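Quick question: what would this complex look like in 3D?
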Amino acid sequence: MSRIAGRFADLKAAGRKALIPYITAGDPLKASTVPLLHGMVEAGSDILEIGVPFSDPMADGPAIQRSSERALKNGIGLSDVLKLVVEFRKRDSKTPIVLMGYANPIEAMGVGRFVAAAGAAGVDGAIVVDYPPEECGPFSDLCAKANIDCIFLLAPTSTDARIREVARAGTGYLYYVSLKGVTGVKSADAAEIAAQMPRLRAASKLPIGVGFGIKDAESARAISKIADAVIIGSRIVQEIESAGPEHAVARVKALLGPIRKALDS
Amino acid sequence: MQMYDLPDPRGHFGPYGGVFVAETLRHALDELREAYDRCRRDPAFMAEFHYELKHYVGRPSPVYHAKRWSAMLGGAQIYLKREDLNHTGAHKINNTIGQALLARHMGKKRIIAETGAGMHGVASATVAARFGMKCVVYMGSEDIHRQAQNVYRMRLLGAEVVAVESGSKTLKDALNEAMRDWVTNVEDTYYIIGTVAGPHPYPMMVRDFQSVIGEECKVQMPEMIGRQPDAVIACVGGGSNAMGIFYPYIGDASVRLIGVEAAGEGLASGKHAASLSAGTPGVLHGNRTYLLQDANGQITETHSVSAGLDYPGVGPEHAWLKDQKRAEYVAITDDEALKAFSDLCHYEGIIPALESAHAVAYAVKIAPSMAKDKALLVNLSGRGDKDMQTVADRMGIKL
């Protein structure tokens, strides 16, 4: 069983929902990332998504765009991100790590080289925003062999046939994009998402994480009633931006604490 | 070459092209593909498209024999396909007319577009006005400074021009921002991509709408010289004017196809926009193609004196034609293009767009070493009115 599947099984047994925060690697500083990851685990996170900075983050809103630009200014590339994972793993061998980003940095490294290096570094899953299942056959085959979960996105506009197709290809969990738009701009509407859940549950037994537009404890609690995991990205990245390098860890922990509590209440 | 029928049903030209987009756009692209499939087989739709091309754009555009300059060069005869004479001053309108008709057919009330030099933005704003649709154009803030006249032109036509401040603040970032708008407003919005790039079906659809250029040449050249030209030459940024003139000639192996990229300050300087000549394959803006990128797969900034060629990618069909060696791709520097620009003004009384001047420059480069009975057909994709400021600045003249 992969670390991700194991984590979801444990949570289910305990009757809890997963908290999955996202940060962009190398933002605001290269040295910030590993302490932020540990801090987020201490604040009750179950799985960590680490953004790989890319020059053209087409699916992201302004907050994550800016974080990507800051990370690129710090010279962070995909190989640096993998080194940060190695560093994190020295103190934490249990928390699943998912890399999230775009196809081109992976293709530039070489799909085979990336999968091997990611596996060795202790990466458990990959979300490649612009790699839909039908365009990434060789990548997802290699990931399967390396025991890395390929996590695919589904959207409110996905048809039933499409949901089935993506559900067949995905492993780890399904990432449901809660709204029409980019990351972090609008707010998720729990009632709308709830209405979509039966279509997703009918197509897949995988846990379902909901992301894009979850901003606080209240919206997280509402989503946790219908999904298996709550994914929070832009809100955290904004907190890091306004806190600056010195206070980032404390401020992110302070942000996640009440959200964790809301999920467990 | 065998029968050419690319792309395949999923939009691939060999390893290039495809649909590399976030799931949020998937449904919109499926809808678009289905609508376009219906329309291109619909005689009424195509009749309407050709009616607009004739009466609104002013097609067919003539082919002009640059006799005086050809004689001065002493070699091959140079023919110019006069896309500069189209309404709005460039080939871009062929595509925006087609896509605006499609948008109307799909019941979309709002169109969005990205623009670099502003020509595609102007062509989009124009058709939006023509068909009574709302239009929003995304333009990098750097380009807004460089192309103030076109910004004003778009606003005159009733479009809203949105400055894009992210990334390098140029065309590629405008494209990212237009995609973000589309994904957010997907129900009522149609995205008119201006070149043969982006996810399927855009590269195919834009090529199809632009191929009216080459189709006309295939009729006009035999009328003028009794046969097809020996080579067809076009500039390549994203590559839409080149695909438009190349496509009908792909099956005719006796016609050389030559795409001319922007070498900027020289390929060795790193300051250029020649993705086919100096790039490597990767994934950007929804398709796999040649890209200018660094070792980490980050897209690098480009340079060209002509804003319309200033793009770090290129249409996937060009990537395929390059690998298959069906088309040749070369690069022309800023200086060479500027020389061709002023020579064409002086010797033929035609002020070309700086983009098109790259194609002209290459024709002028090879013509002298060719026999006098050889014919080079150059796509003069646009006129140079928009470039007055740029050229004057380069020459140190204050307008």
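Answer marked as accepted. Chain B touches chain A through 38 residues (CB under 8 Å).
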